[in-house]
Design brief:
It is built from one helix and 14 strands. The protein is mostly beta strands.
Length: about 170
Amino acid sequence: MPKQDSLDAAWSPDGRQIAFAVRDIGDGWQWEIYVINTDGTQLRRLTKHPFNDRAPAWSSDGRKLAFFSVRNNVEGGIFLMDADGTNLEQITNAGEDFPSWSPDGRKLAFSVNLRRTRVGVMNADGSKLKFLANGHRPSWQPDGSAYHVNPVERRVSIWGLIKQFLSRDN
């Protein structure tokens, strides 16, 4: 099957695989999630759906992938699946995207556009969703104490707020 464009590459925690989104020319130009071994072998398609699947993120134990999809509504949301593409589960449905697993695998950070791009955090099952700041594409610090946010405005630093929230919620 011919391919064009790939994005959102994510290394597995053990460094042996890369998950990424590919736009398939021969399949309606939809984005799908693929995994390949880092030596270039065993390319596997994990999703096949008439709508876009993007932004895969590995859980810290390498057993699950979180990703964004619009398969069930216009806004889309975050889905979870096993690393082999089975056991698909939708955990949000209000346009949340760019999931990022906490180092301990208990939480997901995400961004969502609600009149402005916001960053939030929730339990890995989608419960206890809270918005923290303006920004997008969050990523966690290795020790889980805070996470980095790409700012969408030049103004205020949000590290203190995020650290307070995470220490209070653990």
